[in-house]
Structures are given as structure tokens and as C-alpha cells.
Amino acid sequence: MTSRARVVLLGWGNAMRSQLMVYERLYRILGLEPTTVIPDTLEGLGRPGAYARIVAPLAAELAAEQGARPIVVHLFSDNGFMGWAALLDALDATENGRRAIGAMRGVIVDSAPGLWAVRGPLDFARRFALGMTPAVARMARFGARERLPIVTPLLALGFLGYQVLFPRAVRAMLSAAGRVTAKQPRCPHLFLYGERDILVPPRDVRAWIERQREVGIDTESHAFAEARHVALFPKDPRRYRALVTEFLKRVVP
Length: 253
What we know:
The protein has 253 residues and is of the alpha/beta class. Helices cover 56% and strands 14% of the residues.
């Protein structure tokens, strides 16, 4: 694969930069130049245009290259997926941006998408409560926890009220799937997901993959039987590296 290729990493909600560094190292070993953006989940919850603002510098940088080198996108969770939608919006708005989309050779989707399949306000609240619990657990020094007694149910109640107070932000988040479908590059997609993911259920990922295939996207998917949300690489680093490496050999020869 060419050493001039670059990879865009779109991080999951509340991710720390140190957590993305392992992926950056992997791509440097494989000869790609990584660029990492971690959209701010809290800002996205309050401002409909937050994801667009966060990815604007990256979109400008990619557009300035005018598709001069191959691009791979690697996104994580629904937060990365919403960042992906905002990035496509920004690139699709200009001729040079559309050239950048045309230079995209592959998309890797880790633990996403799930929000597109939300089944009403209660399900929305449940998902966001689960998504915010690990951050709360870290702040309380409980370590990595997917659920906390009392705290997670209270977060769910809070997110029920949130949907009433911030309807525009909710609509913006729920619209990401349609925007991605309309503007995504027609390049191969690799989907990686965990069978023990409680935030983005495997059934939602598999249903999205079927939708992608129906619109003609070349998709490859692999489930990690014991892996939880965005924990695929830590669970089985050898397999994760092998799958990414083989995919890159196919799309960035």
C-alpha cells in the first residue's frame, strides 16, 4: 500500500486521546498517516451544529488536498458515526470536498451504528444513559463500568427530559444515518462489532449492514464473540490487526 495514504480516525464519545493512540500506532506501522478527531459528545448534546464545527478544520484540510492521495476513514461508535455524517456534509458542499470523498478508498466502522435504530424516546434515553455511564464512572473513580446502580437509571430519566428540552439537537443526531446514506463514498466498508455490546446491539449493526448492501455498498463484517462496546481491539488485538491489515491491502494496494 502507498505510504502517501492517510487515515482519519473519528473517536467514540468521551474517548481520551491516549485510547486512540494505539490505533494511530497501528496505522503508522502499516504506512498510513493518521489524523484523529474526537467529537465532543457534551457539546453535541447541546448544539445541533456542534459536530459540524468540530470537523470543520479536518474537512478544510481534506478539501485542500483535492483528493491527491488515498483516504481511509475509521470511525468508532455513534459519536464517530455522527462525526462522519458531519464530515460528509462539509465535504459534499464544495467541489474540492467532493474530490476528497472520491479519494476515499475504504471505511472501517467499529461498534456502530446503533442510534439510527432507536425505538422511541425511552430507547434513546436508555442508550445515552449507557453511553454516559463510563464517563461518570471514571469521574467517580470506579474504573470502567458499563452500568452503575442508581446512576444509570437516573441518567436515563435525565435523557428523557433532555429530548423535550433539546429537540433540534436530537433531530440532528437522528438524521445522521440518512445523511451518511446519501453522501457516503461508494468504496468498500469493513464492519467490526462485539456480540456483547449493550450500547450498540449487534442486531442494529447487522441490520445496517443489510441496508448498505441493498444500496450497493461492498461490505465485509466480523463479529467479536466476547467483546463489548469499542473494546474489540483490547479483547483480541491480533485478530483486529489482521482484519484491518487485510482490508487495507485490498483497498489501498
